[in-house]
């Protein structure tokens, strides 16, 4: 079994994608993160789901969650609004997460090794031109190798 | 909306759970990780999904994925077998990941702040005795706060 057999369609975003659209993708698909591709469709990095929250939640609340308690419910529900007008570029961590990239004929063990080394539950699979053709998730990998 | 309203059942494991059972849970449920509880049912830490792979994949393959290529398919398929007889205790990272813990009446903003600060897409919700009654996922949180 090779990367091409394990790869499935996976939602991608661009640096210019709105933070709200990224949040919606995360909410709809129960994904560990979103793959950011460049203009050529080449995978560049991963946007961890919690990074979107880092943009949406006021700094004081992140530093001391107890302070978040004094904010009333109405304000709490408003935090999604702070995402408006922001883009994925602003959500990315200062130290971008390494997104492992595999070739279509990489083996199961190679993909597992990439995931283990990068601690990434996602591996992007690219064609000869570097364009993303799908992604292998930890779940797909485990389902392929675990005894039935 | 409070933590109790957002919390849902979430699979838990113990330190003595077999690594194979943990891998199966990850494969079946598409979870970002598994919550490890102690004998009293109190949440202790999170087992990130990729940690199971770190135990299953030979060290040489993690350090240099290119080396994994020379291992033939038959061997690659065998790695699940290395999990046999190992436990969750052996899978945990040396630096355990912080699992945020919320009380049932914590607000949405408090939960979001915990997720953002700990970079954890999961928050365990515990009762007055510290026993886990469920977990809030990033998806549940986003679904609650994003405009329809």
Could you describe the 3D structure shown?
The structure is a homodimer of 148-residue chains. The first copy, chain A, has one domain: CBS-domain (Roll), CATH 3.10.580. The model of chain A has no long low-confidence stretch (mean pLDDT 86). In chain A, strand 1, helix 2 (19-29) and strand 2 (33-37) form a beta-alpha-beta unit. The first copy, chain A, has a 3-stranded mixed beta sheet with strand order 1-2-3. Chain A has helices spanning 3-6, 19-29, 49-56, 59-63, 65-68, 73-77, 88-91, 108-118, 138-145, and strands spanning 12-13, 33-37, 43-48, 101-102, 122-126, 132-137. The two termini of chain A are 16 Å apart. Chain A has 148 residues and is an alpha/beta fold. At the A-B interface, helix 2, helix 3, helix 4, helix 6 and helix 8 of A face helix 2, helix 3, helix 4, helix 6 and helix 8 of B.
């Amino acid at each position: 079994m090779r990367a091409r057999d394990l790869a499935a369609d996976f939602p991608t975003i661009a640096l210019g994608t709105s933070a709200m659209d990224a949040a919606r993708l995360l909410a709809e698909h129960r994904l560990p993160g979103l793959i950011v591709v460049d203009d050529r469709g080449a995978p560049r990095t991963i946007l961890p789901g919690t990074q979107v929250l880092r943009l949406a939640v006021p700094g004081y609340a992140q530093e001391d969650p107890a302070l978040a308690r004094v904010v009333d419910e109405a304000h709490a529900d408003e935090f999604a609004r702070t995402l408006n007008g922001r883009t994925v570029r602003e959500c990315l961590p200062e130290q971008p997460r390494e997104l492992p990239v595999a070739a279509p004929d990489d083996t199961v063990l190679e993909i597992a090794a990439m995931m283990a080394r990068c601690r990434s539950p996602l591996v992007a699979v690219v064609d000869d031109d570097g364009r993303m053709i799908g992604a292998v998730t930890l779940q797909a990998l485990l389902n392929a190798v675990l005894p039935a």
